[in-house]
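Task 17 of the worksheet. Students: predict the tertiary structure of the chain below and write it out as structure tokens. Keep your answer in the requested format; marks are given for formatting as well as content.
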Amino acid sequence: MEEIFGKSYSNSYYNNNNSNNNNNSNENKQNESTIKKERHLVIMQHGLHGTSLDFKTIRNHFLKQKDLDNCIFISANSNSHFLATHDGIDKIGERLFNEVKELYEQYDQPEKISMIGHSLGGLITRYAIGLLYDDGFFKKCKPDQFISLSSPHCGSRRPSTTIFNKVAHIFVDNFLSVTGKQLILHDSEIPETIRTFPTSSSPPPNEKLKSSKTIVNSSVKNETDLPLPLAEAKEPSIYKEVGNNEKLVIIEKKEENEIVTNDQEVPMPLLVRLSEGIFFNGLKLFRKRILYSNIYNDVQVNFCTSDISAKNPYTLGKLMKFSEKYRHIIEEESILDIDPNLLEQQPDKKPSIDEKDLDEYFTHDTHHHFLKRILKNLNQLHFVRYHMYFKNILSHTNIIVKREWINSEGFEIVDHLVSHFEG
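Model answer:
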């Protein structure tokens, strides 16, 4: 897999010994040297309850690389104070945004920037990226690589199929303050009486509408007193297509056999907004976007949300072939055989998620509309994906070797990250 990001690929190109190509080879070496001299600001953002020391191992490995001497490796410190990561992804991301701008000036305006986020740090960096985009920052500093290490891009909602999932859901909702509610899409303050239908074209059969009541569809203008017969009633929209400032139209179940509209309107959940508008456009500018995900045993962040996928193929029987050099990383033919530079030249590449297939998932989740929307939005972008497997439940911290004495299995992942990073 080393061929992907350039080291072996570049060496095989630039070490051409054909005498007829010596001039071209020397010229390319000079160009490579020029590129390497571009100063490169690399921001590393820790996750929930973390500190800037979380990236100590990764930063030390980066600093040992002679070919990365043009890089400035900074472990962000603006959110390291006590319970800072409980304040909400928006407030945390704004603090990182301000820190990045200060660091940019402090280090004499580097030419390009990359951002690495672990766990919640992946969402924090994405929020900061949106603010940087809106501020015009990327017009003067080129966005290069975005890397997330087991980050909950689709939130932390879990199906209520096990006791652990139920307890985890309660914990996130009640003990992580604003951030927790954002992670499970409860930050829009939807009333407990909310009723959202599955993706069928009409309400469930047991939901009988009294003739005096109506269903209001948010796509209809002047949506007042527009009764629809049950056979013609369309699925109520729970959001309006008006951009990042859109509001939810709440459909509230009042009694057993009737559904009425509620005039309450609440903002879209932050994670939905984070997949659109300035946040999407900012992330799109990055030359490469890379996801590292644990397929099992990651207690904090499950595979689907970190891989931005609707399903985990390994739970469905997909065979795992591990890399010879990196024993905890699963090889993927699509990753091994395709140069990301070529993929980036295909802007019209079909998204990796088919909407028809996506409709089969999350049907029993009251927030399924949001989950599908996040997946559809983010999968319009190309991501290089690396899948990892550890046998113990420390997978989440192994990925960054947070504590060397207990996370030593993760050194291979750190080596992979550092050796595939392009300065």
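Marker's comment: The mean pLDDT is 76. DSSP finds 17 helices and nine strands in the chain.
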